[in-house]
Hints:
Helix content: 40-55%
Distance between the termini: 49 Å
Number of strands: 2
Order of helices and strands: HHHHHHEEH
Shape: extended
Number of helices: 7
Largest sheet: 2 strands, antiparallel
Low-confidence stretches: none
Radius of gyration: 20 Å
Strand order of the largest sheet: 1-2
Strand content: under 5%
Amino acid sequence: MVALLRRKDQTFVRGPELKADLDRLDQHYSSLPDEVKVRGLHAFAGLPPADTSFLVTRLWDKHLPAWRKQVGRPSVTLSKEEQKALVDLLNRLGEESRPINPPPQMSPEDMHFVQIERHVIPRKGKWNRFPPEVVEKAR
C-alpha cells in the first residue's frame, strides 16, 4: 500500500528499523562524557551524527541536505544587552497583545505577528534538554 501512496519526496521506514536506529542513537549519545551531556540535548544532539551508518543521518541527508553546512558553524551569541532587549521586546509584545480564542481564519498578510507559547519540561526520560543554568533561571 505504501508504494502506491508514497510521494517521491517521502521515505517509508519500517517501525522496527527506525526503533533500532533510535536505540543506536541513544547509545551513541549516552557514551558522551558527562560534561557534554549536562549541557542539554540541544547542545550536542541538535543535528544527527555525521556518521551515515545511522538511518536518521541518511534521512536528514535525503530530506534536509543543507543540515551538513551547519555542522561546525559557530552559533550566534548575543551580548547581555542584546539578550535583555530581545526578552524585553518579547515580553512587551506578549503584554500588549490580546489573545483571540478561537482564532479566526486569517491570512499571514493580515497579522502583525503571532506568538505561540510552549511550556517545555526540562528533562525527558534520562535526557536533560537544557543546561542547568537555563533550568535554574526558568524556576
